[in-house]
């Protein structure tokens, strides 16, 4: 279930966004609007640890124990009293016994008198009174005695403290976190077999346009194969959402209305491509407007410009359930760029994930780039390391918004910001690398 409180109207949201201008909307304002628009999933499910990889934690996880539970050795060597160490010359110590990992409680001896040490293995509990471990490679063993040369170890070295990884009562992982491999390991270290996660976001998507054919069909003159559903599918799979593929919907008011109704019934969000340009001859915009509360934007970005945003309702739903509409442009590159610039973070927020900005590289442009201030441009680039080790970026061939090859060849998007002007050769630019986009 999505949020049940009465949502703000689109007009109310717009009035909260400084500098809102639907005819030329800066990317930052579009993102702010969308962040205010989207609700978050509410249902929580308990999942076994391994099933929770990539899912969003729904509650803070508080550590029920200290990890590690006891002070223990970080090395194979000899546990000793730091105060026994001589400032100069060798420190001679009697080896009073040995202790291995997993032997807590039965360690023998559990303590040692001054002038004594205990042979200890990595992970073994520190015997009472001993606070330092000298790695075995530093000592000279003479029968049941060792000599520790001066300066090889300081008091307190090589001892892991109880609770130094996670202290009992401390928030180990905060709600809103997308669970990564390290997090699964950390939860396991707390003995946690299951974790509460938000239910998966359900996202419906379809392509619109009478010129589109599905793969497997013949391609008559003037038609193109529908590629957007495949790029969208790929980008959505990476976000770990539940997918509802509604196919290619022909330019027919009833077929479009049926697809939107199905989406509003079953999905939290619906993503379409095509049919939202100004002067578009088909029915997509009219059907969107008739089924919900929808705005048609011209965004100050390239590629991308036209986009529909809003809520698509469903008269059949007594509870007023609606889906958030992301009506993306049809051009294949524009679909991907608007998805990364505007949709991805919104879907993560809907999934319950706390905001996390994607890391960008600063790379030197190998050539001059023409850029008009007053819009954000996303050029496709290939990032490599220059001889000196610094990052450099080369724009991939033609940047037409229909040329998907520019995207396929690229390994990152060069982000030329709203106010930025022409870029000189060698100048540093921001690049969003594709690797690491979850
Ligand atoms: P539109 O936004 O509907 O005006 O479409 C812009 C351009 O993108 C047109 O050349 C369309 O043929 C193309 N296009 C729209 N949807 C798709 C799609 N699903 N797959 C490939 N190309 C598309
Ligand atoms: Mg069209």
Description:
A hairpin with a 5-residue loop joins strand 23 and strand 24. The relative contact order is 0.13. The chain contains 8 helices and 26 strands. The chain has a 6-stranded mixed beta sheet, with no helix packed on it. The chain has a 6-stranded mixed beta sheet with strand order 16-13-17-21-20-18, with helices on both faces. Strands 22-24-23-25-26 form a 5-stranded mixed beta barrel. Helices cover 19% and strands 29% of the residues. The chain is elongated, with a radius of gyration of 30 Å. By secondary structure, the protein is α/β, with parallel strands linked by helices. The chain has helices spanning 10-16, 27-37, 181-189, 228-238, 253-266, 284-291, 332-350, 404-409, and strands at 44-48, 61-62, 72-73, 77-80, 91-99, 116-120, 132-135, 140-142, 145-148, 159-160, 171-173, 194-198, 202-208, 212-213, 224-225, 242-249, 269-273, 292-298, 301-302, 306-312, 323-328, 361-365, 376-385, 391-395, 412-416, 428-433. Bound molecules: adenosine monophosphate and magnesium ion. The site of adenosine monophosphate has 18 residues, from loops. Residues 209, 274-275, 280, 282, 330 line the site of magnesium ion.
């Amino acid at each position: 279930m999505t949020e049940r409180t009465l949502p703000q109207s689109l007009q109310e949201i717009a009035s909260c966004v400084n500098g809102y201008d639907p005819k030329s909307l800066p990317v930052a304002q579009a993102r702010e609007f969308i962040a205010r628009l989207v609700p978050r999933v509410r249902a929580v499910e308990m999942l076994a640890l391994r099933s929770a990889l990539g899912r969003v934690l729904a509650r803070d996880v508080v550590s029920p124990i200290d990890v590690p539970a006891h002070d223990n050795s970080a090395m194979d060597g000899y546990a000793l009293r730091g105060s026994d160490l001589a400032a100069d010359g060798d420190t001679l110590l009697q080896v009073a016994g040995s202790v291995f990992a997993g032997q807590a409680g039965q360690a023998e001896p559990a303590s040692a008198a001054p002038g004594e040490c205990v042979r200890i293995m990595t992970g073994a509990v520190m015997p009472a009174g001993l606070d330092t471990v000298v790695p075995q490679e530093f000592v000279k063993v003479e029968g049941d005695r060792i000599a520790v040369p001066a300066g090889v170890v300081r008091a307190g070295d090589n001892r892991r403290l109880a609770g130094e990884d996670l202290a009992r009562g401390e928030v180990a992982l905060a709600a809103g976190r997308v669970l990564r491999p390290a997090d699964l390991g950390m939860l396991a270290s707390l003995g946690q077999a299951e974790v509460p996660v938000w239910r998966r976001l359900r996202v419906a998507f379809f392509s619109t346009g009478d010129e589109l054919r599905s793969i497997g069909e013949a391609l008559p003159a003037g038609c193109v194969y529908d590629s957007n559903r495949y790029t969208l599918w790929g980008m959505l799979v990476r976000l770990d959402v539940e997918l509802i593929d509604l196919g290619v919907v022909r330019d027919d008011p009833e077929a479009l209305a049926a697809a939107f109704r199905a989406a509003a019934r079953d999905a939290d969000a619906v993503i379409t491509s095509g049919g939202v340009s100004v002067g578009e001859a088909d029915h997509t915009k009219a059907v969107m407007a008739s089924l919900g509360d929808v705005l048609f934007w011209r965004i100050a970005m390239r590629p991308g410009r036209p986009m529909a945003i809003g809520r698509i309702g469903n008269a059949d739903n007594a509870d007023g359930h609606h889906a958030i509409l992301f009506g993306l442009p049809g051009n294949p590159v524009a679909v991907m760029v608007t998805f990364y610039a505007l949709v991805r973070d919104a879907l993560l927020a809907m999934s319950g994930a706390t905001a996390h900005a994607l890391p960008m590289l600063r790379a030197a442009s190998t050539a001059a780039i023409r850029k008009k201030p007053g819009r954000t441009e996303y050029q496709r680039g290939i990032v490599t390391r220059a001889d000196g080790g610094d990052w450099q970026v080369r724009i991939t061939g033609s940047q037409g918004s229909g040329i998907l090859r520019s995207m396929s060849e690229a390994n990152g998007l060069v982000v030329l910001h709203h106010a930025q002007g022409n870029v000189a050769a060698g100048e540093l630019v921001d690049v969003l690398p594709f690797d690491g986009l979850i």
